[in-house]
Amino acid sequence: YRASVRNYQRDGPMNVNGNQEGGPNYFPNSFSGPNVDRRWKQTKVTGTLDIDRHDSAEEDDFNQAGIFWRQVLSEEERERLVDNIGSHLCNAQKFIQERAIRNFSAADPQYGKRIQQNINRRNKGAEGNMSVQANL
């Protein structure tokens, strides 16, 4: 009856089992996360209304972020946000960067473009630093 647990219940009190080897604690993730298995879907509960889980897969996750980018942030705030996101995302694996840029671009094409430019600038600078260090 030994099976490894794969869920998103981590980091709680009395955690003594290796914390799922430091796997990401978000869904969906690209690294060793649990897979959705419809066989274990909770059944519908009937009361005065039908009660069921809401499937959020088809929701608009980008419209509100686009409005925030275009109508709420000033140009200086946009630049700080792009710099903050780019400074962290530049260290991610390429496929994670590409997925993130697609998501930011879905909110607003300019948002994604500016983050991509920021990452490119940072990675180009990092390559130059590596060559200097190699010559030392």
General description of the model:
The longest helix has 27 residues, at 109-135. This protein has helices spanning 63-72, 75-89, 94-107, 109-135; strands at residues 45-46, 50-51. Helix content is 49%, strand content 3%. It has a two-stranded antiparallel sheet. It is built from 4 helices and 2 strands. It is extended and about 50 Å long. It has 136 residues and is an all-alpha fold.
Helical residues, percent: 40-55%
SSE order: EEHHHH
Strand content: under 5%
Radius of gyration, taken over Cα atoms and rounded to an integer in Å = 21 Å
Rough outline:
extended
Largest sheet: 2 strands, antiparallel
- Strand elements, count: 2
What's the pLDDT, averaged over the residues?
80
Strand sequence of the main sheet, in spatial order? 1-2
Unreliable segments of 5+ consecutive residues: 130-136
The number of distinct helices, counting runs of at least 4 residues, comes to: 4
How widely separated are the two ends? Answer: 56 Å
User: Which structural class do you get from the secondary structure elements?
Assistant: mainly alpha
What is the element layout, followed by pairings?
Elements: E1 45-46, E2 50-51, H1 63-72, H2 75-89, H3 94-107, H4 109-135
Helix pairs in contact: 2-4, 3-4
Q: Tags for this entry?
A:
single chain, 136 residues, mainly alpha, two-stranded antiparallel sheet, 3% strand, extended
Short summary of the structure?
This protein is mainly α and 136 residues long. It is built from 4 helices and 2 strands.
